[in-house]
């Protein structure tokens, strides 16, 4: 928020600088703007002092009021930028001088910002008096110990019991098992079921239970564990030698030491709801790890905490219930019996309940208990009613729903309230834009958040936090990044987010024939609109709100006239039909404030030249469209940073003022960061952009390898090219160069190798290169020399060979490599183990030849690799020698035709940090034993089946 306020303050300064002050009203307007600027700067200062963590309903309401003020004022400032369409004197003569209304608006803004500033000032002065009075203490609700639901989680308890057992030949060592999953999924119930198994047995000397909620101070959790352990030891043997001994009477007593107890006794300690890794670190550091047969079971809803507690291994990830298990649990709770057999009418009426609960046990049991209270009067209409209003009335509690939903509400509220700050909560509520089952592209979401100014500085980190806390579920993880490439929000969580975001006026929804979901206040302006499965004409119902609309997202529907939406910053039309109709794209060019425009999969075939009017556009996505040639005007958009598609770059003039203007723009003005990507051939070449665009970091290129289309490139040591490169380096002083650009002279082009040399000539080197072309891929690999500035390489095409091991050792900065359909065998690819800095390697091949030979990883091979993904018909033979792959945590084997794993993988136990193995969904269960035989007992998951939304 403070970043947005700073941005507006700078806008005010800019507008004030251009306002004339030669009459009274102009002076008043200028003074009013300056006053508002000072007040906003004061608010920023107060927010930074007090509001690093925004807590409390009243305080959050004030923040939202400030946000609405910022939006209104930003829109007002934008109107001041544009001169009136008619003469000022004419407007005055007609008594239509706009300055009169502007002054009224200024006075209103002054009153609003002053009142908000007074609130933050009062809050800052009262901060030392204790907790914000409107802030209720929010601790993690204790999960229901309902073991009935565990009957539906096949083998969950037995898997935890298996993890508690010592591995064959394993030395005595304290082991920590983490149970991680979203809130309400049954982590505590599972842990209690395991505790009940051992509470009366002699297998452990003591079984202790501790709730970690509220243990935020150093060693507070440690003291709790010690107290619980001593209590259970005393219960089991109050007068026997098992009880901890204290010094004799008359001597000073000493409190027993937890690490000694855990080492001398075999204890089983359950620590429920650990939310901070630091709290756990203080605890585990005080325990002796070696020489102990004790076990600790931790439950948490934070992935990073689970990893920290269990050092990346011995992590059990809770899964949602399957459809059959969900129905079985639900109807048992509705009827209170094991032999529940609902009538067909109730089965049909409850479909939306199962859809929205999404296999979450706590949600299912809450709804079932509510319906159970109906007794014999239960009808299908009751089920339909709960399914329809589950989010608004029951989860948000707007209709004083029964206490059976209290725990479910507290669970969801805690997910929201426990987030670190307002930025994270804004990011969470923003997810209400997307419909159920929609796979959210992580990078696109981050670009949207930045373009909207919701999360200016740390959008990616905010989204990572939501994944880490199990609020967002990853759908596709196949890289070494924390953020999955695609994610989605679970059913009941999405239901809560949608209605909370609507209530807070973050999002307005149009969905089919359903009533428009919008904020209850009649004064609330619609800022973000999501149109889901809408019929034509529903959008027009919001005509009076279109003027304030900042974000419009439409899902597979036909857009209508947007001429009233002048304040749009975000326009996402991916998959929409009718975009190519006459005049529509030209109309988009009038939305001058657009920063993000997504036209992916809209079947458009060209972009109008009027697109040059979008001077603030930062992201343009035209992937999966029929746009073949990109207008030069697009490349020359000054703010454009991310350009996606598959197109040819336009022909560029070689002489004259137009050429001079273009090359000067690339060198000094262009913001282009990602060009992904362009098609190159003999006549259309992108070297002018690649060489001169200073901010360019990521390039993706396609090339047909037929002789007629293969591009040829000018040697970089050509004297004319060298002088132009010098001009790019020397800046304005070199502008006197003749812009007769030699690399547009096709008769002087020689070969593809010159393109590779051209990449090396860039003043600011590239960081990521993706190439689809056998010819260029081979030459690119041959050209690599250390030290290499490129950190990510993706190649698709037949390769003759890979560089020699000595050469690969010099390429230490390459962190990510993906190779597709290279025609090489796994034995050929084993040379990649000499890439010392490589952290992620993905190999995709679809021929059986790939499995010829074996991947033998020697000691110190792949020393930095964290993630290895093999996508092939079957798993090739692999041998991991001791001391190899010392950093590997994730192994992906996406090989559908693999038979039993016997003899295929040798030495997997040498992968010291392996924590997860991901298998293809069709691979046999025998493959899971490969992972379970590892000392770390890594988590075994199966790649989810692809869905329609990709």
Automatic annotation (TrEMBL):
Residues 140-149 have a biased composition (Acidic residues). GO terms for biological process: defense response; response to other organism. Residues 433-495 form the Disease resistance protein winged helix domain. Residues 170-336 form the NB-ARC domain. The keyword Repeat applies. Coiled coil: none annotated. The keyword Transmembrane helix does not apply. It comes from the Eukaryota. Keywords: Plant defense, Repeat. Residues 549-646 form the Disease resistance R13L4/SHOC-2-like LRR domain. InterPro entries: Disease_R_plants, LRR_dom_sf, LRR_R13L4/SHOC2-like, NB-ARC, P-loop_NTPase, WH-like_DNA-bd_sf, WHD_DRP. Residues 124-151 are annotated as: Disordered. This is NB-ARC domain-containing protein. The lineage of its organism: Eukaryota, Viridiplantae, Streptophyta, Embryophyta, Tracheophyta.
